[in-house]
């Protein structure tokens, strides 16, 4: 059961990343919120290297695949990300912010490892940044007032990819912390899926909501 859930999570999150790459280039945007993307690539790079330097496992192979995919997603962020920001954010300012975000993300991951050691740190950090990502997807939808850089496939695969390890660690291994954080992720993920469904069914209302002075079209 654990192996099945590990593979399911790996396939689901790989789907998220591949779709994020395709959607990013299609819409000339980025499909993973910036703060979550920074934490993700830091987590995956650190634990991919750790897997290569120790005993390579199924999860280790998955981590390597995720890290490679994240490199491309980071490229879409660097290539198109400044378009999502106000005009006063110059290219040098944007690059400086991106570098600071990346350094902070790596520092956070190392602090988790220093505090909890490798295995607990990987779980606690993964679920907390997952919850952050779930909330930021909703914020991205609201900020963009459109489906640009977003996809139902990303939303559903992200939910499944988080639900699988929630069952593994939260239910099968009796971790109340992970079960609680995983449940909150599901609440936010299902809310985001609902927003995307609403947007697809009401494209006219979403278009009207792009006017900052017109909030009547929002659900």
Number of helices: 8
Along the chain, the helix and strand elements come as HHHHHHHH
Question: What would the average pLDDT be, to the nearest integer?
Answer: 90
Instruction: Tell me how many strands there are.
Output: 0
User: What are the segments in which pLDDT stays under 50 over at least 5 consecutive residues?
Assistant: 213-219
Distance between the termini: 40 Å
User: What share of the residues lie within helices?
Assistant: over 70%
* Fraction in beta strands: under 5%
The rounded Rg comes to 18 Å
- What number of structural domains do the residues give? 1
Going by helix content, strand content and strand pairing, the class is mainly alpha
Outline type:
globular
Largest sheet properties: none
Structure description:
With 219 residues, the protein is an all-alpha fold. The protein has one domain. It is built from eight helices and no strands. Helix 1 runs antiparallel to helix 6 and helix 2 packs antiparallel against helix 5. The chain is globular. The N and C termini lie far apart (40 Å).
Task: Describe the protein's topology.
Blueprint: H1 2-27, H2 34-53, H3 58-80, H4 91-116, H5 118-144, H6 152-172, H7 176-201, H8 203-208
Offer a few descriptive terms.
single chain; 219 residues; mainly alpha; disordered C terminus
Short description:
The chain has 219 residues and is an all-alpha fold. Helices cover 80% and strands 0% of the residues. The protein has helices spanning 2-27, 34-53, 58-80, 91-116, 118-144, 152-172, 176-201, 203-208.
């Amino acid at each position: 059961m654990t192996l099945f859930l590990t593979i399911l999570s790996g396939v689901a999150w790989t789907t998220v990343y591949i779709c994020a790459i395709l959607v990013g280039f299609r819409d000339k945007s980025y499909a993973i919120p910036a703060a979550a993307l920074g934490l993700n690539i830091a987590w995956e790079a650190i634990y991919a290297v750790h897997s290569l330097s120790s005993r390579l496992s199924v999860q280790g192979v998955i981590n390597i695949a995720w890290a490679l995919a994240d490199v491309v997603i980071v490229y879409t962020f660097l290539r198109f990300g400044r378009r999502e920001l106000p005009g006063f954010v110059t290219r040098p300012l944007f690059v400086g912010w991106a570098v600071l975000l990346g350094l902070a993300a790596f520092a956070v991951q190392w602090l988790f490892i220093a505090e909890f050691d490798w295995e607990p740190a990987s779980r606690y950090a993964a679920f907390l940044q997952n919850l952050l990502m779930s909330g930021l997807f909703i914020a991205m939808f609201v900020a963009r007032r459109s489906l640009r850089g977003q996809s139902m496939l990303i939303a559903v695969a992200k939910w499944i990819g988080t639900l699988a390890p929630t069952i593994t660690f939260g239910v099968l291994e009796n971790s109340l912390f992970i079960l609680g954080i995983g449940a909150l992720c599901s609440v936010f993920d299902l809310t985001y899926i609902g927003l995307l469904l609403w947007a697809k069914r009401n494209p006219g209302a979403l278009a009207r909501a792009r006017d900052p002075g017109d909030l009547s079209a929002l659900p």
